[in-house]
Amino acid sequence: MAKILIVDDEVQVASALRRLFRREGFAVEVALNGEEALEKLNTFQADLVISDFRMKGMNGAELLERVLRVSPRAVRILLSGHADLWSSSPSSAAQAVSHFISKPWDDDHLVARVRTLLGGQQSPTTSSA
């Protein structure tokens, strides 16, 4: 079963993503900021990390740069509704982002993209349906 870590400081957004991916059969953990996400990665071996860009403290690009160092095999997705992403992030942080998805997202498109990025990893209940 593929494991997804969702990082967003907006509780409603994090909850919506958690519901979406759990319904699709993924194991999901949620963190509400970058530091919490890094702590969770100590015990939760995420296959994919989805992070919001604009968060208090560490932004999503900075977080994904650190995720690359501690969990280099994890796919790293930056989720944002803002066009000015890279103006406030160093180029090394931008390079740590595997994929970018705009807010608002389409649930079906997001799930399909995640499945593609994970190479078909899914839960047994989803694959047998």
Helix-strand pattern, N to C?
EHEHEHEHEHH
What is the third-level CATH name, the topology?
A: Rossmann fold
Shape: globular
Number of separate structural domains: 1
Low-confidence stretches: 123-129
Instruction: Tell me about the largest β-sheet.
Output: 5 strands, parallel
Strand content: 15-25%
Q: Tell me roughly what share of residues is in helical segments.
A: 25-40%
Short description:
By secondary structure, the chain is an alpha/beta fold.
Descriptive overview:
With 129 residues, the protein is an alpha/beta fold. The chain has one domain: Response regulator (Rossmann fold), CATH 3.40.50.2300. Helix content is 40%, strand content 19%. The protein has six helices and five strands. The protein has helices at residues 11-23, 34-40, 60-70, 91-95, 107-117, 124-127, and strands at 3-7, 27-31, 48-52, 75-80, 99-102. It has a five-stranded parallel sheet, sandwiched between helices. Helix 1 links the parallel strand 1 and strand 2. Helix 2 packs parallel to helix 3. The longest helix is centred in the N-terminal third of the chain and has 13 residues, at 11-23. The radius of gyration is 14 Å and the shape is globular. The protein starts with a strand and ends with a helix. The relative contact order is 0.19. Residues 123-129 have low confidence and may be disordered.
